[in-house]
Amino acid sequence: SEQGLFVPVNNPHQQFDISAYYVFSHNLSNDSLAVFFTDKETKSHRDGLFVPLALQPSPAGWTATAFHQCCADGYQATYTFAMKGLQVTEITIRFQVKGPHKDYESHTILTRIV
Known about the structure:
Structural class: mainly beta
Strand content: over 45%
Oligomer: single chain
Number of helices: 0
Order of helices and strands: EEEEEEEEEE
Number of strands: 10
Largest sheet: 5 strands, antiparallel
């Protein structure tokens, strides 16, 4: 899950809380990762594919790019998985969203809460 504060660059006084829930699923047979939307009630079960990710090694650990079409708006995504040994320590997600209804860039950093 992710929770945060949305702060528009062009109007920083217009802030609001945001949250989203996703399930990351690893397929061992082809070493791919998929991100699924979650059921809005349980926030844990798969509800629909958001993006499939083909992982590539990178200096930070692993990187994947993906594209999601939502009606007329397109979401170009870059996921970076920072690693310490076999443990994912941080996930950085960058979206560039373009279309007739949306035009923004989003940067999200997910870290484990202990």
